[in-house]
Amino acid sequence: MSGGSYYVPTSSKWPIFGSLALGVMMAGTGTWLVHGPVGTPVMLIGLVAILTVMGFWFRDVIRESMAGRNDAQMDRSYRWGMGWFIFSEVMFFAAFFGALFYVRNLALPWLDGDGAKGVAALLWPDFTASWPLLNPPDTSIKGPEHVLDPWKLPLLNTVLLVSSSITLTIAHDGLKKGARARTRLWLLITVLLGTTFVSVQGYEYYEAYHHLGLTLQAGIYGSTFFMLTGFHGLHVIIGTIILFAMLMRVLRGHFSAEHHFGFEAAAWYWHFVDAVWIGLFLFVYVL
């Protein structure tokens, strides 16, 4: 692993295999977007390949950890790597929140004649800016008939995610104190809360599409709504899978009070996803 003070990482074939699998999936996705179903098989093959590579790669990392091959240098690299990954996720969602801000606070007022670019109002002189935008300026685009009540399903999901951060913190505290039974119980509850959140959001999407006319094609409100909530939902699904994997490791006796960064990294990710949801709840549903 290391010689003197110079760190040499263990050789691994998974990065190149992961890059190839990702390339296949992206090629299939691009083909699907342009040419329709013809690209679906390639996209699915790439997705399965990515999941397979991830499974084997994680297996090797776990084996290295359990064999005691991770020294202080490796531990620091894991922490820096996870930190930069979460930072990249912050920038990812910042771009989407920025798009929402641009539309609501700049583009729509311009189209209504306000601001430095109010001349844009000449495009649709009868347009009146409002948010949620139920009546897009282009009459060929049909806006949503209604929007979701933030104090029903969205509030329920907020309670679920905030509660899951609390239960995960209790599980983490139990692991640090060697109380493994407490860790197992509260981590299981966290996984169930995450699963419930995804189920509630799935029902919310069903209601939006079938009863509210709120779809991806329902103007800028529909596209920003599903862009923000959909990508966040994907992150919740990924986080729930990660926490389930941590639960399986805890059940197998992995981790100790002193060495459990795999669990800690999963907790970092989950708390970040929860924090993003608070922003979504406020700026997408309430305000």
Describe the structure.
The chain is mostly helical. It has two domains: 1-69, Helix Hairpins; 78-286, Four Helix Bundle (Hemerythrin (Met), subunit A). The chain is built from seven helices and two strands; from the N terminus they run ββααααααα. The chain has helices at residues 14-35, 40-66, 72-111, 153-176, 180-212, 219-251, 261-286, and strands at 2-3, 6-7. A two-stranded antiparallel sheet has the order 1-2. Helix 3 packs antiparallel against helix 6 (219-251), helix 5 (180-212) runs antiparallel to helix 6 and helix 6 (219-251) runs antiparallel to helix 7 (261-286). It is globular and about 70 Å long. The protein starts with a strand and ends with a helix. The model has no long low-confidence stretch (mean pLDDT 89). InterPro entries: Cyt_c/ubiquinol_Oxase_su3, Cyt_c_oxase_su3_dom, Cyt_c_oxidase-like_su3, Cyt_c_oxidase_su3-like_sf, Cyt_c_oxidase_su3_a-hlx.
